[in-house]
Amino acid sequence: MKVALVDAVGEAERGGMAVERACAVIGLPRRRWYRWRDRIAEAAGDRVAALTERKRGPQRAPHALLPEERETIAALASQEPFAGLSAPKMAVMLARENRVHVSARTVGRVVRAAGLSGVRRQRRSRHAAKPEAPAGGPNQVWRFDLTYVQVVLVWMYVVFIVDAFSRKIVGWRFTADATSREVRKTFEQALLAEGLLEAGQVLPTMVSDRGPQMRAKSLREFFRDLGAAHLFSRPHVPTDNAIAEATIGCFKIEGPGFDRFPDALTGEHEVAVWVETYNQRRLHGGIGYVTPEEEHTGRGEALREARKQALRVARARRLEVNRAKKDAEVRAA
What is the pTM of this model? Predict the structure, then answer.
């Protein structure tokens, strides 16, 4: 095909047509025609072979591994002390013993080609395990976190402890210090309010992120003395503590003053009012649109079932009324 194109343009040129015009007619770049013509002229033999595309660049890299070097690497890879070594280590040892000086990647290619491999050690995962803490009832799993609010020109903080089952805020604290000491005080108040400090009570599993207050030694010792387990979410995975994060998000959006207060006393009062509203009156979608207090005290399931029953009764009544209305219209017609 290429030879035919060269011949066609050459024939047109001999007939008086310009090469540029002839190449445009057959859709062949002019410079390419000249290159193909010169290659055919230089070949002075097989014209088709002269136009066969050749691989560019040298056929063999000038720095390619020598056969004796390849044989040395392949032979030593199965002998002590090289057997089982990783490619980087073997490359360094070959160089230290002045046998072969090559890169680790070259050693790896030769060893793999010989059907050998180094020892593969199981790497430890860099990711922490996801905290598995299912909650089948109230006060089984507590999730906690803290957030900041602005009071005039300074920042203050609110610690929230949320029951994972009922979504109830079982403890909170408005404080000027974001320290483990304040977190510990919040837990002491929450445990007392829920009656979990009495003898024989099973304490909830505590789940938090990896903030400095949560990882503090004093807080770990506090939970250890209580006999409560403390789990941490994975680094940079906020969804592991989604319930606490969502509660804080709700406070930021629906809370009083959009987390800005004129003074500390007003801020603490407004947070207390919001927590009361959240627990006692706000219908929570995550628990079937009952209040956290209703779910926490065991009334949630009955309220949800009563709502379903009321929907079934209302639907049956609408069917009865609409059918009766339709029958009356048919009789009237």
Answer: 0.62
